[in-house]
Structures are given as C-alpha cells and as structure tokens.
Amino acid sequence: MTDLSSPAPTAPPKRPFIRTPMALAGQTLLLAAVLLAVWAMGQNLDTNLARRSLTFGFAYLMEPAGFDLSETLLPFTGSQNVLTAYAAGIGNTLRVAFAAMVLTTILGTLLGIARLAQSPTIRLLASIYVDVVRNIPVLVHVLIWYFCLSNLLPLASDQVQPLPGLYLSKEGLSIPVPIAGPGWGLFGGFVFIGLLAAWAVRRATGRFLPAAALFFGCLLAGVMVPVLLGMPPQFAHPQVGKFTIVGGAVLSPEYMALLGALSMAASAYMAEIVRAGILSVQKGQWEAAAAIGLNRNQLLRFVVLPLSLRVIIPPYISLCLNITKNSSLAVAIGYPDLVSVTNTVMNQNGRAVEGITVLASVYLSLSLLTSLIMNAYNRRWALRER
Amino acid sequence: MYGTTRFLAAALLTAAATAPALAGATLDAVKQRGELVCGVHTGRAGFALADSQGKWGGFDIDFCRAVATAVLGDANKVKFLSTTGSTRITALQAGEIDLLSRNTTWTLTRDASLGLSWVGINLFDGQAFLTRKNLKVNSVKELSGATICVDSGSTTEKNLAEYFAAKKLDYKPIVFEQNEATLEAFRSGRCQAMTGDATALTIARANNLGDPEQFVLLPEVISKEPLGPAVRRGDEDWTTIVKWVLYAMIEAEEMGVGKANIDQLRAESKNPAIQRMVGTGEDTGRLLKLDKDWSYRIIKQVGNYGESFDANLGARSALKMERGLNDLWTRGGLIYAPPVR
After folding, report:
1. I need a surface site. Which of A146, A220, A386, B252 has the fewest CB within 10 A?
2. How far apart are CA B7 and CA A343, in angstroms?
3. What digits encode the pLDDT tens for the residues A84-121?
4. What is the mean pLDDT of residues B36-45?
5. Are A170 and B114 a contacting pair at CB < 8 A?
6. Other C-beta atoms within 10 Å of B53: how many?
7. In what helix (H) or strand (E) does residue A99 lie, and over which residues does it extend?
8. What 3-state class would DSSP assign to A133?
9. Separation between Cα atoms, residue A344 and residue B256, nearest integer Å
C-alpha cells in the first residue's frame, strides 16, 4: 500500500535567468545589434523623407476626411475627421471578420465531421469540396463571389422578396430595422425580466424546462402587452426607391460576397483542423463510449469532440487571425474596410508611411487581442503534464 | 489588388533602404541604365494599352517614348511599369519610375506635399458621370440616392463627395482598387452611375462596357482635371528636360512640323525657328544637357502633339474624340507652349 502521508516532492532547483557570463555578454551584444539596426533604418527613413521633401506627422488625422463611405456601422460623412474614418474602417473590418469566424466555425466543424462520416458518398463529397476550395486563392474566391452576386442579383426595379418585409436586389439584402420607441422599451423590459426569472428558477429547481417555459411566457407577454396598450414595436421598412431600395438596414453585396468567400475558404481549412482533432482521440475512448451504450451522435457530442478540442484550438487560433487579415481583400471589391479607407486617405494626402504604420498597428492589435482571448480558452483545454 | 499594400510597403522599404544616389541624378541614372522606366496605366485604350504582342501604345506611352528618344536616342529604350491609382504616386516617390505618364491630375496637394513636380499639362479634362440610358436620368442632380462606382486613388472621390455635399444630394460610393473591377461592377448594374475623367469614361463606354448604346455620358463636368506628366521634385535638370520635351511636341504642331515633312524641312528649311526644331539651327539641346537632334528625334520617331493625339485619341483612332480644349491656342483650345528657343 502506498504511504499516502509521504512528504510532497521537493521542487526542482531554480535555473538562473541567464546561465553564464558568456551568455550574458552574447545576448547583450545581440540585443545591441538589433537595436542599432532598427535605429539605422529609422535614420535612413528620416534622411530619405527629408530629401524628397516629405514630412512625418499624425496631425492629418484631425483634418476633415473629404470622402464618404458606402456603408458603416455608425453614420459617417465626409466632414468628419480622418480618425473617425479609420474607426469606421475598423468597424467594418471587425463586422466581416467576426461574422466570418462564426460561419467558418460552424461550417468547418460540419465539414470535418462529414469527412469522417460513415457514408462513403458524404466522405467523397466533403473531400472534393475541401480539396478544391483550399487550392483556390482567397482573392479569387472573393472575386468569384462578388461578380456572381453583382450579376445575378436583380435590379431594384425587379426586386425579389424572399420573405415579406425583406428585399433582395443589387443593393443587397434589405431588412427591416427596429426603431427605438416605447414598444421596444416594453419588449426589452419583458425580455430582461424573463431572463432573470428563468435564471432564478433554474438555480432554485435545477431543472431546465420550467425555466424555459417561464422565459417564453415573458417573451409572449412582451409582444402582446405593447400591442394591447397601442404602442407596438416599430420597424423601419425598406421600400423601393428611385434607383435602389431605401430604408431599413442593408447587407450589401460587397459584405455578403466577402463574408461568403472568407467563410468558404476558411471552412475548408477548418474542416481539416477538426478532422485532425477528431482523429487524435484514442480509439479506446470510442470503444468505451460505445460500450456504455452511447449512440454515434451522443458519442461525438459528449466524448470525442470535447477531447478533440485540445488539438483543434491552437491551429484554430491561427485560422481566426488569417480570416481577420484576409478581410483586407475587401479593397478588390469595394467594401470599405480599414485597408480601403487607409488607401483612400493615403492617396488623398500622400501620407504613405503614417498610413501603413496605422494599418500595421491596428492589425497587430487585433491579432494580439484575438490570440490573447483564444489562448485563455486554450489553457482550459490544453494537455497538462504532471 | 491584395498586392497593393505589399507593393506600397515594399516601395517604402526601398525608399528607406536606397543608397543616397537618386535625387539630383535621374538623368545620369537613366543614361547609365540605358533605359527609361516609365509609370503608366494598367490598361486604358487610347492612353496606355499593351497589344497582343506585348507592345505598348497610347497617348501617355507616346510621351514616355518622346522623353526616351530625346535623352537616349531611341524611342524604344523604355520600360513600362503598370501602376494602379494607389501605387502610382508612391512608385514615383520611391524611385521605381523616372517619369509618371498616367493621366495624373495636377493639384496643389500633390504638387506641394508629395515631393513631386508636374512638368505641364498635356490633356485638359474634367470629371463627368456615365450612366445607363434606361434610368432616364438627364443630369447629375437627378442622381440623388444612387450608388456610384469610383476608382480608388484619385481626385475623383474627393470631387464626388464635395459636389454631392454642396448640392445636398444623397449617394453611396463604391470604391474599387482596380479599374477593371469598377467597370465590371458598373456593367453588371451594381451601380447606377460611374464617375471619372470624361475621356476615360468615353473610352470605357466605347470599349469596355459591352453595348455602348446602353450608356450615356451626363452633360455636367464637375471639376477641372488638368492631366500631365510628373517627375520627382528636387531634380531640376530632369524636370527641365521632360518639360521641354512636352513643349517641343506642342511647338512642333504649331509650326507645322510633323513626322511626314520633318526630313524635308531638315534638308530645305531656312526658317530659323524651324531650323532649331529640326536640329540644323541653334543648338538648344546643349543647354538641356542633351544633344543637338533631341527635338528632331522626338518628331521623327514619335510625332508632334497633334499627331500623337489624333493617332491615339482623335480622328485616326477608334475613339474619335474631338480636340476640344486640347486644341492649339491658335485654334481656340488651351494647348500653348513657351517658345523653344
């Protein structure tokens, strides 16, 4: 019998930060050399800028932009300053990158599982899709999607209504957008109460069904009460205008094409990542799960996929960063993302060095933030060595 | 293109890493290289278009060849570098090209703050709008609420924004990096109108949009777009040479000296002004650090201004554009050259 009262093992001896004086000297020299190189490049840039009578400075950020953008999260006009234009560009980039990440995850996971399906037909189709899509450059995907959409979508005069209230035209998918008012305020209030009540019930009873029922009840009340009181929730409906559909919110063909292309291209990579993750789970786990009576869906959901996450997440982080960076292909199809806005600003006042600096810093920050968040999630699932 | 940002970064790194030799010595560099590097459009009929054999031809191309023949003796010693609207300025600033002959508008901002210098105006143009006939729009003022396709990297975006803001009209600009993408989006109906220089739109309507009859150029011209070749600021010798190549071409048309009669005039003419132009009179080339026959070669190998215009944009080309403002001042246009003497 093991002696459970034995003392804890002693910690290994602490290794010094720098091992020997030689190592210290070497590393100091290396660091000095790198810093010197960076300083020299900076000096060279300075000299050459001066020689070409160009200046470096960020004062231009406060000047009026002088150009408009076709779509932004918040309203933007040319009279606002360049910094606001950059912010609008960042908003657009995030909008498409985030949506693409979500779509990629869903589509990629399904494809990855399909590549390991029991039916050979499904496996074959999924393999063909993944191989074909992965070998086409992302820019080509973007251009194909965009020119298909812009040619196939109907003119505003013959717009198509897939569902009442929605319009599909060359302008994009126009959807009704809620207008703030008492009707929505009441609805929001009921939803909030419903959520609180459902959470409370769940805590109290530990059961899901009564909580869900309570939430839906509040939702229903939230719809009926404002209507009964005569203050129904208002929508801004899109209407056919002179040239295009006006009103409501619109998902432009540029946005849809970029989203579709990014998701399609990245989902092929995601499929392979998921497949690798699933294949990394030991066969013993599959057999044990089957032995305790789980069917294939339950097996995947409760045993295999959670274990495969530890292998999936690191390359998934890289894929998400790639999606964010590939969204810069928006310049090819006229979607006003950050690169497009930066290009316009650089062309109008020639500030190329400052523009590239801003561009590089923003993408760097976005990537660092994404990897920070994802790595935190990864630590939860990573294989811990004891 | 995706490559644009990479190209810009590479051009900037080149600028940063370049040994201090270029500024003030473009003429020497060109002579040493034996070739002129000229920045041109990626492909615009009439201005700069490569044919199926890869040979470039066009109004801007002719100017590059004129500079090459004046400096190097042979109009074919030119390398043409395609640049987009966004990369053309940086390419010139960074030293990738010696001369930018690419429909570039001369504005205060570009002249004063980008380290560039315009040598003159070789085409007077203006910004106009192209739209479809079936929209039944007769004026730009009726384009309120429309979606308009624009090329990135030019004065067009700013002019568009200012004009529509001043007239309090609503619009949506879709800005494309590549001219081809703009044309395709307009052709497919994504935008109701397209804006750009009037000559470029005329060319696009004739060549790139399928059936020209479906499209119409609206009458308003909303801005002045004086187009001219540009060089780097600070290199006075080079700027002077390029400037006088342009003026020589214009002066030659004014004097009636052309490709067809230049040899005869060289042999026979007793007029001192013509003798200077054809290389038998006073040596103006020496003052420009060129040789005596510089203007003779330009007219002989490339042609004078009128011949270049006619062959590429005017009567003898497929575009059949009127000279209009681009006619000589003696015939009511704005093309005028200081005397080449």
Report:
1. A386
2. 12
3. 999 999 999 999 999 999 999 999 999 999 999 889 99
4. 91
5. no
6. 5
7. helix A82-114
8. helix
9. 44
Mutation to test the B interface, candidates A41, A47, A48, most B Cβ within 10 Å: A48
b/e burial code for range B239-277 (CB count within 10 A of at least 16 → b): bbbbbbbbbbbbbbbbbebbbeebeebbeebeeebbebb
pLDDT tens track for B86-130: 788 888 988 899 999 998 889 888 888 788 899 999 999 999 999
- Non-local (6+) Cβ contacts of A168 within 8 A are A153, A154, A159, A160, A161, A162, A174
Q: Which residues contact B87 (CB under 8 A, 6 or more apart)?
A: B4, B7, B8, B11, B153
Query: What's the mean pLDDT in A242-265?
Result: 89
- Which has the closest alpha carbon to A245: A357, A116, A173, A156? A156
User: In 10 A of CB A120, how many CB atoms?
Assistant: 8
How many Cβ atoms are within 10 Å of A27's Cβ, its own excluded?
11
pTM given for the model = 0.78
Tokens (6 digits) for B210:
């399928």
Following DSSP, what letter does each residue of B123-184 receive, concatenated?
A: EEEEEEEEEEGGG---SGGGGTTEEEEEETTSHHHHHHHHHHHHTT--EEEEEESSHHHHHH
- The secondary structure of residue A304, as a DSSP letter, is I
Give the tokens for residue A38: 């960076």
How do residues A214-237 score in pLDDT, each as one tens digit? 888 888 888 888 888 877 777 888
Residues 6+ apart with CB under 8 A from B184: A147, A150
> In angstroms, how far is CA B124 from the centroid of its own chain?
10
User: Which of B18, B140, B172, B186 should we substitute to test contact with A (largest number of A Cβ atoms within 10 Å)?
Assistant: B172
Q: What ipTM does this complex have?
A: 0.76
**pLDDT for the residue A139:** 95
The pLDDT of A240-265, averaged and rounded, is 88
Say if residue B4's pLDDT is above 70. Answer: no
User: A282, A198 in Cβ contact below 8 A?
Assistant: no
Angle between helices B3-17 and A352-381 (to 10 degrees): 120
Q: B19 to chain A nearest CA, in Å?
A: 9
C-alpha–C-alpha distance, residues B332 and A248, integer Å: 53
Tokens of A112: 């990855």
Q: How far is CA A11 from CA A4, A105, B33, B259, in A?
A: 19, 42, 69, 93
- State residue B2's pLDDT score: 47
Is the predicted pLDDT of residue A74 greater than 90, yes or no?
A: no
CB contact (8 A) between residue B181 and residue A332: yes
Torsions phi, psi of A102, nearest 5? -65, -50
CA-wise closest residue to B77 among B105, B98, B92 = B98
Here the tokens at position B252 are 């030659």
Find the Cα–Cα–Cα–Cα dihedral B114, B119, B124, B128, rounded to 10°: -20
